[in-house]
């Protein structure tokens, strides 16, 4: 289930300009800090870095 939430988050990061805090909440994470930590563990970069690399 965590991987599904992260996959959705990665899509929102690359396909939208939603704030990262909104993406974290929309994907079921309790806060942006926790989301960023888990995202980095899975994708190797923080959400903002991931978004910048994809644009």
UniProtKB/TrEMBL annotation:
Transmembrane segments annotated in the record for this chain: none
All residue ranges annotated as the HTH araC/xylS-type domain in the record: 1-53
Pfam families per the UniProt record, alphabetical: HTH_18 (PF12833)
Record keywords, A-Z: DNA-binding, Transcription, Transcription regulation
Single GO MF descriptor: DNA-binding transcription factor activity
Annotated InterPro entries: Homeodomain-like_sf, HTH_AraC, Tscrpt_reg_AraC-type_HTH
Protein name, entry field: Helix-turn-helix domain-containing protein
Organism of origin: Pseudobutyrivibrio ruminis
